[in-house]
Task: structure prediction
Amino acid sequence: MELEKVIDENRQGEALLVPGQEGQRKLFLESYGCQMNFSDSEIVASILGQDGFATTKDYREADVIFINTCAIRENAEQRVRNRLNEFKSWKSHKPDLIVGVLGCMAERLKEKFLEEEKIVDIVVGPDAYRDLPQLIGKVQGGHKAVNVILSKEETYADITPVRLDSNGVTAFISIMRGCDNMCSFCVVPFTRGRERSRDPESIVKEAKELFDLGYREVTLLGQNVDSYLWAGGGLKKEILTEEQRAHAVNFAQLLERVALVSPDLRIRFSTSHPKDMTDEVLHTMAKYNNICKYIHLPVQSGSSRMLDIMNRGYDREWYMDRIRAIRRIIPECGISSDIITGFCTEAEEDHQDTLSLMEWSEYDFSYMFAYSERPKTQAARKFTDDVPEEIKKRRLSEVIALQQKLSEKKTKAQVGKVHRVLVEHESKKSDEMWMGRNTQNTVVVFPKEHFKPGDYADVLVERCTATTLIGKAVKN
Ligand code: 5AD
Ligand code: SF4
Result:
């Protein structure tokens, strides 16, 4: 799930807002976890918007509270439980309030959620959001409601997401759902079901509509975007004839179609999988200026032995070959990773392999985690979670310290250069500065002058902090 890599930790638990009209029923929607969850919440808001709901930022105003949950690690679930606890006393003041849980934790726990957390009235998995109005009706009729059916077809292709809490410049487009990879540590295949790709026509249409509305950057989302393949409605990848496969749209071709919407629309995507990332994708990125030169390519571990028991489908050498291909075809490309420390049987030697591969890969950025055993996964069934917690944590801190050093070096190397920046919003630190990103996804801050969100500015970087570039716009 490299999907979660898409995580923006700052957005954890953020409430989402679409203004409503007097008298409308009100929905408070809070999302946790990966970008896919945030994107799904926009589909939920759309479905419930059609049913007469407006969203609110204040849960005390809400008739319905939904939490879109994450199950990737134990602590993600704990955060959701804590939040539900906070809603408990409020519900005792407002007995008609409906509280629902959506997403991965809902799918994992199913009906058990109702027993474990008495405050919960509705449990809905990621493929059942079309059923939400009906489920709310059921609760109003005095029953609890559950729909956790996973689908092999659902992509919500026809639903126009309601852009929640948007800056009006950047947006997510979900291009596929589910994951067929079965990495041994990962719960996602159980919570999001089988992989399915969305019709490219509907993806390009969504990108065009966003561009016409003034958006200037779209991020194409999928658990493993490199395995995107569209051969026509209902045609499953596994059973394609050679001819059907030859005519199918792959990820490189989809990228190209979206890049052609407008040279002023930036394209990002996440997450890439080292076993599936092709040179064709890299050449397409190199060919189009508006496809951002940034790849999130999670390695998970630098040890081939660990990668094997993680069931990742590649080894250290293969991964290094993919990094070399990126450096050869797109020399300026930013690269980030996900790393897990303390997976089952991980020895000091394996950990050293991770550190050395990080140094070699020179990541700009990494998301780093201590291994957390998840029920039902292959690792939970077949291996022992045998690395003591303090060792997991010590290795994690070593990995974090190394990444910090690598990030600083990368950031410093950008000083003195001119970067094309898409303006997103006001800098959090100063109302006289804009915040945007360069193509490599590094944050750049510079004085506002005449620029506005959605503009491109060429910024000469004069100094930096560990992760932010600071400079001023230059004349073209
Ligand atoms: N424990 C720790 N980290 C995990 N991830 C996925 N499953 C687990 C787990 N059980 C990490 C992986 C993945 C990212 C989204 O979360 O690094 O790429
Ligand atoms: Fe990513 Fe592997 Fe989990 Fe799929 S199974 S979501 S590829 S970590």
User: Anything to note?
Assistant: The longest strand covers residues 418-426. The chain has three domains: 9-147, 170-412, 418-473.
